[in-house]
Amino acid sequence: MRFTLKQLRYFDAAMRTGSFVRAADDMSISVSSITAAIDFIEQTTGAELLRRMPAKGVIATDKGRQVGQRIQVFLEQARVLESDILSMTGDPAGTLRLGCYAPTAPYILPPILKRISKSYPEISIELKEGDMQSVVELLNNGAVDLALTYRRDPDEIQPFFPMFQAPPMVLLPDVSPLAQQREIALEDLVDQPMILLDLPGTRAYFGSIFKAEGLEPNIAHTTKSSSVLRGLVAANFGYAIMNICTPNDKVGQNGYVARPIRGQRDAPSFGVAYTNASYRSAIVKMVLETCREVSEEGVFDHLLGSAVENSADIAQRNT
C-alpha cells in the first residue's frame, strides 16, 4: 500500500472536522503535516478529494466522500485489529476514545477512569467532551468508541447500556423561601425566573417537564455552561433544573440547594452509547463491563435526586 496508516488518519481527521486547522488540533500535529498527507494522497490517486475553501475550511468532493468512507472503515478495522492483537497476550491494551456529555463529565468520568486504570493499566484513554448532539456525532463518525450521555427514547436503534436514571432536580438560591421545602411543585416555579442550560436537546427536554403539566417556564437567562448556571443561581438570578447534582448541591454549601420535583417526571437514562462496529473491540467490551460493574455498585447514587440529604448525613457517609 502506498499510503501510510498515519496519512490515512490525517485524511480522516480533515474529513471529519472540515478543516486542516481543526484536524491538526485533533491529531496534535502541525497543519503542514495534515496538508502534506492530503497532497500526497491526492497526487497518488490523481484526483481532487478535498476542495480548499478560503476562510471556510475544506469540503469533500464526490470522489473524496467515497474515498473517505473507505478510509474510515479501514481505520476502524485496523484499530480493532491492533487492540485485539495487543490483548491476545494478556489484558486488553491499546487506546480507547471516550466521548462524554460535558456537564456530567466532572461527576461521571472520575470513578469510571479510576476503575479502568486499576483493572486495565495497559489501556490509555483519549477524552472528548461535547453536548449530547456532538458526542453522538463523534460516535457515529468513528471519532470515539463509546459515548457517556443521556438517552430519553428507549426505542432508539443505536446500542446503549443504561447505568442509571436521572430524575430532574431544581437548583434554588439558598435565600429562596422555596429552599426550605423538601420537594418543589412546578406550579411554584412558573412565576420565578429560570436559568436555562441551553445546549442541543436541553431546551426541549426542560420545556417538556412543564408542558406535561400545562405550564410554561419563565426563561430569564440562558447559558451553555453548567458552572455558570450554578453561579447565577447562587447569585439569586433565578432557579435552574439539572439531572445530576452533588451532595454539596443538596445542602446549600455553595449558595444554592438542590430539591426534587414533586411527582413523577421524565427521568432520562444516563449510560454508554456504542456502535456495532466498536463493540467488536476487546477494549470496548471490557470498558462496557467496567461501566456495568460501577453502576451496579451504586457509585452514582449520590448524584441522583431520590432524596434530600442534610449535612449530618453527608458527614457520616464521608467518615
Please provide a written account of the structure:
There is one protein chain. The chain is α/β, with parallel strands linked by helices and 319 residues long. The protein folds into three domains: 5-83, Winged helix-like DNA-binding domain superfamily/Winged helix DNA-binding domain (Arc Repressor Mutant, subunit A), CATH 1.10.10.10; 90-165 and 268-303, Periplasmic binding protein-like II (D-Maltodextrin-Binding Protein, domain 2), CATH 3.40.190; 169-266, Periplasmic binding protein-like II (D-Maltodextrin-Binding Protein, domain 2, 3-Layer(aba) Sandwich). The chain contains eleven helices and twelve strands. The chain has helices spanning 5-17, 20-27, 31-45, 62-88, 105-119, 132-140, 202-211, 226-234, 247-251, 282-296, 311-318, and strands spanning 50-53, 57-60, 94-101, 123-130, 146-151, 160-165, 169-173, 193-197, 218-223, 240-242, 256-260, 269-274. The strands form four sheets. The chain has a five-stranded mixed sheet with strand order 4-3-5-12-6. Strand 8, helix 7 (202-211) and strand 9 form a beta-alpha-beta unit. The chain starts with a helix and ends with a helix. Residues 307-319 have low confidence and may be disordered.
Q: What's the structural domain tally?
A: 3
Which structural class do the helices and strands define? alpha/beta
Write the H/E string, N to C.
Answer: HHHEEHEHEHEEEEHEHEHEEHH
| CATH level 3 topology of the largest domain | D-Maltodextrin-Binding Protein, domain 2
Strand percent estimate: 15-25%
- Ranges where pLDDT stays below 50 over 5 or more residues in a row are 307-319
Question: What's the gyration radius in Å?
Answer: 23 Å
- General shape: globular
Q: What is the tally of helical segments? A: 11
Please give the oligomerization state of what you see.
single chain
